[in-house]
Structure prediction request, 165 residues.
Amino acid sequence: MTTRQPFNKTTLTFLGVAIGVITLDQLTKELALEFLELYEPVPVIPEVLNFTLAFNDRAAFSLGGANTWVFTLLASLACLFLLWAGPRFKTKGWVLLCGFALGGVGGNLIDRLFREPGFPNGHVVDFIQIPFNFPIFNIADMAISSAAFLIALRVVRGEKFGGSK
Prediction:
């Protein structure tokens, strides 16, 4: 009789990436809260990058209406789907992308659940500002949008979602 390991290499890689993204996201948000003043830009690379503290009750990059509880529900469903799908993906590239997506969605979900004004309407901490009137964003937003772009690109190029072996 063979015993099944509860966490194989794929699952550990997937969860490790997600936890890494969440940790980096939450750490940088705490640093932003500690060292930045609300809507007061701090130049990091003049004309290219500022750190500016903002609170967001919308979706990634301030998109969508101010219905935070809806985004909380959607993010919760996305996390559940990603937790189910990630360990089932067949190639390392797909597992990594799913881990980045889970880390990003999870990082912002933590804010929506535990930050002011409170569950399930917490505002997401944003602090990264680039030119061209682009919305202020955070590490989780970067992980979500990067993963979504790369997933879409791979699917458009004909790859099977989740990979195949």
